[in-house]
Write a structure and sequence with these properties.
single chain; alpha+beta
């Protein structure tokens, strides 16, 4: 685990933490959602009572949960990303065509109605995006892919014209 030193938050920082945690709790998979709730509870436990009240009474709300359910195990995908393991996918595209892919997952994008796994696809020899609600199955090969996840992320960002975080 991570240990945080004693801290004090501004009202805007607390609002950001509450809003972000509420969004993750409603939009992420069950394990990540539980992590968001637990993290916010731990932060609330160390705050002075007036700031804790800001968490309890926050008026920043998040819309209801996503409509489309994932067929893929996002916990497995996140683990594959962290460990840089290759996944074998069965994927159904928009027209219903089933394909099998061997991919190097390096990021997950969370949007309001869908989630997207960002990968290097061995078959296409390039970056691809796979909607997680269309992944029929994902199996970790437990084999590391030959390039580093952060290098892939940097190259993908440059290709997309997304500035690197400062």
């Amino acid at each position: 685990g991570f240990m945080l030193p004693p801290m004090m938050f501004s009202q805007e920082e607390i609002e950001a933490l509450v809003l972000g945690s509420r969004w993750v709790a409603k939009m992420a998979d069950a394990r990540l959602a539980a992590g968001a709730v637990d993290a916010l509870e731990k932060i609330a436990a160390i705050l002075p009572s007036d700031l804790k009240a800001e968490i309890d009474n926050s008026t920043l709300l998040v819309a209801g949960p996503r409509r489309q359910e994932d067929k893929a195990d996002l916990t497995l995908i996140r683990k594959a990303i962290r460990s840089e393991h290759i996944l074998d996918l069965a994927y159904e595209d928009e027209s219903g065509t089933l394909t099998e892919r061997r991919v190097w997952p390096f990021a997950l994008g969370f949007f309001d109605s869908i989630r997207v796994m960002i990968v290097w696809c061995e078959m296409r020899e390039g970056f691809r995006h796979f909607r997680t609600d269309r992944i029929i199955s994902a199996v970790s090969t437990e084999e590391r892919y030959p390039r580093r996840r952060l290098v892939l992320l940097k190259e993908w960002r440059e290709m997309q014209g997304i500035p690197l975080p400062t």
